[in-house]
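hey so i finally got around to running the thing on that chain from the lab meeting. sorry it took forever, my laptop kept dying and i had to restart like 3 times. anyway pasting the input first so we r on the same page abt which one it is
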Amino acid sequence: MRHALPDCCKSAAERNAAFESIPVGCVWGGVVLLINSSFFWWPTPTIAPLILSVPLSAWSSSSSAGEKCRKIGLFLTPEEITPHPEFSWLESYLKGYRPYCSPLAIEKDQGFVRAVVDPCVNALHLSLLRKERRYSQAVFRRRQSLRDKALLSGPDRLISSEKKELLFDPASLIALHRMVWKTADEASSRLWGITLFPPRGK
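ok and heres what got predicted. didnt touch it at all, straight out
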């Protein structure tokens, strides 16, 4: 099935096509019918698509119509009828992962923090990275400094480019993950959404 067009694009395309094809088809058919009614049926295979193209296109691009056709088994690709084992495994994995709810006090939009702290997200992110490469001592020292800065001052003190550099370096991500969980500093832990310390005064 085709993907449904956005409403704005679909309406504009329908208006343009209707302005061009439907009047042409109606005028052509009307002229032929008036001049020679017995000849009218010969050009109908050409006239009918001009008139019906817009409503048929609007219907076929509708997501609701696509879902109905999918349910009864129409317009399916071979991969949709018999999915590859990889897709079946991925679907089952996602179904098992979706119910997962992290006990950490980390918002969903804090992707960098989740990639560093949450063990599941951290492992998933690491599995998507390329193999670790060798870097110069200058790069190693800079990333070590970034990890120390992130641990002591919190993730909000890092700019986007610094976060990206750590996210794309497997060694830095693993090291920062361990540093965050092993730190005994309550303030640093709270900056990363780890609230394992009991409230003071209790």
